[in-house]
């Protein structure tokens, strides 16, 4: 099969580059990856000298300020922060500063609200996992198993999203590397007879998925919690350095922040092909000799319509095939740029872009954004509520802005992955110092990201169809423009580090749920350390491999999955944890009511959205509020009512967890 690239230089690259750039970036990236495996090997040595379970899943509760702060921050700064979040900024503009603004107070809410108390209860009960804490605090194996089920349910979704993010990042870095292209071609031939691996799956994506999956599964399985913590520290440093380097490069290459804002004020959203029908018809000058594939990201231009002086410029958003002997293909999925400055910018560097030559366009059937293109909505990329393809109210009306303030500031407190970190710090002084450290760290990460990817709208227009790749695409473009292609390896390592630090934490969370909370605590309490060790390795490996297999055909919307998982976990876990830590009267049935009430209400709004809006990831919004608000409110109310209607917990259980603390503890 031919691939219809037909640029003026016939290069299968998203960007033009010198021959040494991609290879240099690959070398710098490989050095970073080797460092990760070295840390895993060092961590494995600790497992031989300490209690396996406590060390493998909790690091023996001995984390200091920098280790605790950076592993907490790196775990929270997931693939969504460096893949989905930049995608949202690129797609909706400056309003994302308000969308993420409350993240600066996440450390105060999460660490300050439950950190010290959770750490104390975990130490008293000897708990190693979050279900451990819940089971022991309420003396209820059933409640512990319910917590395990919800963690596995939500984290499995998130793992798949993170595997997709890591693979896309790696794929963008390796575009144009000769050995990568050859290996991908070989892999395509090797799996050509396996429908699951070949139908609709890019061999480049598949190769990157296998490489990423192998790396993160092996070092997490081998090194355990300390490997995760130490690599999180390194990854946290890499993330903030990468952002700090990208910020001045993006501002300077976009022509300055003032210039960028003025251009964004003139921008109108692209028109796009509806998912079920529509697009454009492409007609070639002559029939193709064999089946020919039109790749995603290819540019197509045609003469202006009627008296318009603005050329038509389209970018392919879904690969299409022209059968042998044919000269045309209908309903090619594209986006059409509508801003003159963007069109002129792309046409001005035509020799560096992937343009299809010898084609004409007809039967244009595209949809305009629901909000952002009307004259009264001009400047939507610089003022709220931001452009939206589906909502007449825009991307972020005031009610949703309030919802997302609670989503990030409050729901982070209900994340089991964060709770595990809170069970592992050394002492109260460590917690206090870490709150300030993480707040500063988030400020250095998220506000610069808003600026960088607003600049990306000016530098790289037309990427709405593959906006999840905007972070690595910007890294490659910015560094090659200054003749430092090797630096792309470090910049791409930043989002890659964010994904790895999240995946390794989720892997341990799920494997600990199976090994500790299901097997040891319910099936075989007398299991030997050797058996637990073997099962821990096996569970981590199997869970990671399963997520990697599902990610071969991943869901499309990364950030939507992350929002669903994050808000769902908070709706399920925040109320029972807060009640368990601070309310003596709450009992196991009340905690169960809070957990099931929050989960059910949250899920119901997403399911209702599926039937009313046609997509699971467009949830129904009660009184225009996001499901997280309804879920959290319902969870606390259900827990309170059920507790009041049932008998109080045994007095000895209350005394165990609520006796007066000694001074200085």
UniProtKB/TrEMBL annotation:
GO molecular function list: pantothenate transmembrane transporter activity
Species this chain originates from: Gimesia panareensis
Keywords: Membrane, Transmembrane, Transmembrane helix, Transport
InterPro entries per UniProt: Na/Glc_symporter_sf (IPR038377), Na/solute_symporter (IPR001734), Sodium:Solute_Symporter (IPR050277)
Name of encoding gene: panF
Name of the protein this chain belongs to: Sodium/pantothenate symporter
Family of the protein in this entry: Belongs to the sodium:solute symporter (SSF) (TC 2.A.21) family.
Keyword Membrane attributed: yes
Protein's cellular compartments: Membrane
Gene Ontology cellular component annotations, sorted alphabetically: plasma membrane
Topology of the protein relative to the lipid bilayer: Multi-pass membrane protein
Highest taxon above the source species: Bacteria
Main location: membrane
Spans through the membrane: 26-44, 56-74, 94-114, 142-161, 204-225, 237-257, 395-414, 435-460, 486-514, 534-555, 561-582, 589-608, 628-647
PROSITE patterns reported in the protein's UniProt record: NA_SOLUT_SYMP_3
């Amino acid at each position: 099969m031919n691939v219809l690239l037909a640029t003026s230089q016939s290069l299968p690259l998203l960007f033009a580059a010198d021959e040494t750039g991609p290879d240099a970036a690959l070398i710098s990236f490989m050095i970073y990856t080797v460092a990760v495996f070295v840390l895993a090997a060092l961590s494995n040595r600790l497992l031989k000298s300490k209690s396996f379970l406590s060390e493998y899943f909790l690091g023996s509760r001995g984390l200091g300020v920098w280790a605790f702060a950076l592993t907490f921050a790196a775990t929270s700064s997931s693939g969504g922060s460096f893949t989905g979040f930049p995608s949202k900024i690129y797609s909706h503009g400056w309003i994302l500063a308000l969308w993420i603004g409350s993240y600066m107070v996440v450390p105060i809410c999460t660490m300050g609200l439950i950190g010290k108390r959770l750490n104390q209860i975990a130490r008293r009960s000897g708990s190693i996992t979050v279900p451990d804490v819940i089971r022991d605090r309420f003396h209820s194996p059933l409640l512990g198993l319910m917590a395990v089920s919800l963690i596995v349910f939500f984290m499995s979704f998130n793992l798949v999203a993170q595997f997709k993010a890591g693979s896309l990042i790696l794929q963008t870095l390796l575009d144009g590397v000769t050995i990568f292209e050859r290996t991908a071609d070989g892999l395509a031939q090797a799996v050509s007879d396996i429908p699951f691996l070949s139908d609709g799956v890019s061999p480049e994506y598949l190769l990157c998925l296998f490489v990423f999956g192998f790396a993160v599964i092996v070092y997490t399985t081998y090194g355990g919690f300390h490997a995760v913590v130490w690599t999180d520290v390194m990854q946290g440093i890499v993330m903030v350095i990468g952002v700090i380097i990208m910020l001045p490069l993006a501002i300077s290459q976009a022509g300055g922040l003032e210039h960028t804002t003025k251009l964004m004020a003139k921008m109108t959203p692209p028109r796009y092909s509806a998912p079920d029908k529509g697009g454009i018809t492409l007609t070639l000058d002559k029939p193709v000799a064999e089946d020919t594939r039109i790749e995603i990201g290819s540019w197509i231009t045609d003469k202006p319509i009627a008296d318009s002086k603005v050329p038509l410029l389209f970018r392919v958003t879904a690969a299409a095939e022209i059968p042998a002997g044919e000269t045309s293909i209908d309903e090619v999925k594209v986006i059409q740029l509508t801003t003159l400055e963007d069109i002129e910018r792309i046409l001005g560097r035509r020799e560096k872009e992937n343009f299809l030559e010898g084609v004409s366009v007809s039967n244009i059937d595209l949809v305009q954004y629901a909000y952002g293109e009307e004259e009264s909505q001009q400047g939507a990329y610089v003022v709220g509520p931001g452009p939206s393809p589906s909502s007449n109210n825009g991307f972020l009306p005031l009610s949703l802005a309030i919802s997302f303030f609670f989503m990030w500031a409050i729901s982070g407190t209900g994340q089991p992955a964060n709770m595990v970190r809170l069970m592992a710090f050394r002492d109260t002084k460590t917690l206090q110092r870490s709150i300030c450290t993480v707040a500063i760290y988030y400020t250095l990460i998220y506000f610069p990201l808003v600026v960088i990817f607003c600049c990306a709208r000016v530098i790289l227009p037309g990427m709405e169809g593959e906006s999840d790749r905007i972070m690595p695409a910007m890294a490659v473009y910015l560094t090659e423009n200054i003749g430092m292609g090797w630096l792309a390896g470090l910049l791409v390592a930043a989002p890659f580090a964010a994904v790895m630090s999240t995946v390794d934490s989720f892997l341990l969370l799920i494997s600990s749920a199976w090994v500790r909370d299901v097997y040891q605590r319910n099936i075989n309490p007398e299991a030997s350390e050797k058996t637990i060790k073997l099962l821990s390795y096996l569970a981590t490996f199997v869970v990671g491999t399963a997520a990697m297999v599902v990610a071969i055909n991943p869901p499309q919307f990364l950030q939507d999955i992350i929002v669903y998982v994050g808000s769902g976990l908070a709706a399920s876990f925040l109320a029972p944890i807060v009640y368990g830590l601070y309310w003596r009267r709450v009992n196991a049935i009340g905690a169960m009511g809070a957990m099931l009430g929050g989960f059910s209400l949250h899920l119901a709004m997403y399911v209702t959205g599926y039937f009313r809006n046609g997509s699971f990831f467009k949830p129904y919004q009660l009184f225009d509020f996001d499901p997280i608000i309804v879920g959290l409110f319902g969870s606390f109310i259900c827990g309170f009512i059920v507790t009041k209607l049932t008998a109080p917990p045994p007095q000895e259980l209350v005394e165990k967890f609520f006796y007066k603390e000694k001074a200085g503890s």
